[in-house]
Amino acid sequence: MKTTAYISTRRPSRSKSGPISAGRWGGRVLLGLFLLVTALLILFPLVVTAFGSFMTNAEISAGGKLIPAVWQFSNYQEAWVQAHFSRFLWNSVFLSAASTVGTLIVASMAAYVVDRMAFPGKVLFVGLQASTMFISIGAVVLRPQFQLMVKLHLHTTLWGVVLILINAHAYIFFILLSFLKGVSRELDEAARIDGCSNAGIYWRILLPLLRPALGVGALFTFCGAWNEYLRPLVFTLNNPELQTLTVGLSYLRYGPSAAVQTHYMFAGACLSILPLLLVYMIANKSFMQMTEGSLKG
Amino acid sequence: MNNLHQIGFSYLFLFPSLLLTGVLGIYPIGWAIWYMFYDYKGYGSASFVGLDNFERLLRDTQFWDSVVNTFIYAGGKLLITIPLSLVLAVILNHSFRGRSTLRAIIFLPTIISSAVMAVVFYIMFNSYNGLLNQYLLKLHLIPERIDWLGPDHAMLTAIIIAIWGAVGNYMLLFLSGLQNIPNDVYESASLDGASRWQQFWHLTVPMLGPVLQIVIMLAIINSLKGYESIMVLTDGGPIGKTEVMYLYVYKLFFPTPSASYTADQQFGYGSAVGFVTAVIVGIITLIYHLMSRRLNHLQ
């Protein structure tokens, strides 16, 4: 790690430096303070949530304390059973895993033929994929989608939501496509000469080669599905047993006993944040690198 | 291998993607465009009413209030988020100890569900026993409790929460833009004795130009469309103070927990409103696009 500890602005710096190379001490202290305050403001709600999930409800309402007097590990046990978080968690896992697998399969199949094959209408297909990323009329589409799922008898399962989430595969399709462009074609040619079929090339040659890109795609899809709120909400309006973590948690906030369930809300929030936090720490680098076109925020 | 076989195989492999896009992407939009011209409650039969829905929309003060609220929400969010994330990106583009930790911390809110965080913020911003008021009172930063979720401050609270969730994301986008600026530009500027501010204004901002334009456009579209966290936090209340247009559309199709004033589901009218909101977002995007092109010519 290099520091930008060079003093005069008249000498070229050799570190990656923009306008703010080390100036006077006062400036550096201010800068450090600014960064510290920003980091604290970002972390504050998360710290409150983490500690709050170990307090009693009375302790939270009395407030003014950050650290719990007695650590209530039983909060999680109760939230798990009484507030049905075990079911919410399972639903979230199912929804995210199924959407991720489905998205990767659909997107990689499309990316394979678009990159490697010649067929009429290719440009049209790519344009269609691009347009699905940008055209949106908001919640209106949820209604016909819901009615469709009712007709297909999928509205009493989470499969309806899974299909709708897989439908949003354009972004992953483009990631895989740009990655495939960089994969040499010699391998598929060699495999073809050895008598490998098209499907065989996709399955045995390209999917293994695509592994890094598939990993990034999986990360994005899984996180997106895990945090998805509106679609699971709409599809579980009449089926509370299908609620995911995000939906179940928001219902606690509107529940008749919202005021006495604060500690459950905190515990539930922790339960929903923790898995992603672990994934994030493991895959921090890919998160940080693959940000072009991130559509959240 | 022959061509026909290849074409057949291609269509076979595109089939899942095309089927989903057709059934779940294109059909719903067609559905909405069809019902825009109908009076349809979602049960019984739909009757054709021509442009009545659009006439009603012009008179619908609740809708236009929600449009104004959307602009306040999006504008307030962007005015803070864009400069802040740009400054953070410029600072964190330097190497110093703890840089990657700081980046990771600031990016953290991006990976957390906005619905989940809205629940947490609801508890924190609660006016009577909310943690925030208690801390602020303890530190003597405020003389008395602030009603954060009341009619006067609810929008401000929603904006603060939106900023918290967005800064990291845009910081990262700016960072990836900054990676492409060659270092020696700054070195020669330093040699010429340009101050840090001069370098920032005359080098960083212009060279980030294209990235800035795209990111700001994305940010505008996203902030006009975002309503999840408002939905969980206030559900558009109190007294419609935080009602944004996409939330208003949602309520015409689905009942919300605090089913406020849009009493019955109105699919025909809702489709018309949804279509108009999309047009409004499109117009804003276009205006922005034209303005930023003008700026390019001026430079």
TrEMBL record, chain A:
Protein's UniProt keywords contain Signal: no
Membrane topology: Multi-pass membrane protein
Subcellular location: Cell membrane
PROSITE patterns membership: ABC_TM1 (PS50928)
Transmembrane domains' residue ranges: 29-51, 93-114, 123-146, 158-180, 201-227, 264-283
Top-level taxon in the UniProt lineage: Bacteria
Example GO biological process: transmembrane transport
Region named Disordered: 1-20
Stored CDD domains: TM_PBP2
One GO cellular component term: plasma membrane
UniProt xrefs under Gene3D superfamilies: MetI-like
Stretches assigned to the ABC transmembrane type-1 domain: 89-283
Keywords, sorted A to Z: Cell membrane, Membrane, Transmembrane, Transmembrane helix, Transport
InterPro entries in the cross-refs: MetI-like, MetI-like_sf
Primary subcellular site in the record, as a coarse category: membrane
Keyword Cell membrane: yes
Entry-linked PANTHER family: ABC TRANSPORTER PERMEASE PROTEIN MG189-RELATED (PTHR43744:SF12), ABC TRANSPORTER PERMEASE PROTEIN MG189-RELATED-RELATED (PTHR43744)
Family the entry assigns: Belongs to the binding-protein-dependent transport system permease family.
Protein name: Sugar ABC transporter permease
UniProtKB/TrEMBL annotation, chain B:
The protein, known as: Sugar ABC transporter permease
Biological process annotations from GO: transmembrane transport
CDD domains, per the entry: TM_PBP2
Similarity annotation: Belongs to the binding-protein-dependent transport system permease family.
Keyword annotations: Cell membrane, Membrane, Transmembrane, Transmembrane helix, Transport
Localization per record: Cell membrane
Domain ABC transmembrane type-1, first and last residues per copy: 67-288
Stretches of the chain forming a coiled coil according to its record: none
GO cellular component: plasma membrane
Location, primary (coarse class): membrane
One Pfam family linked to the record: BPD_transp_1
Membrane topology classification: Multi-pass membrane protein
Organism from which the protein derives: Paenibacillus beijingensis
Membrane-traversing stretches: 12-37, 71-92, 104-125, 154-178, 199-221, 267-291
Xref: InterPro entries: MetI-like (IPR000515), MetI-like_sf (IPR035906), UgpAE/MalFG_permease (IPR050809)
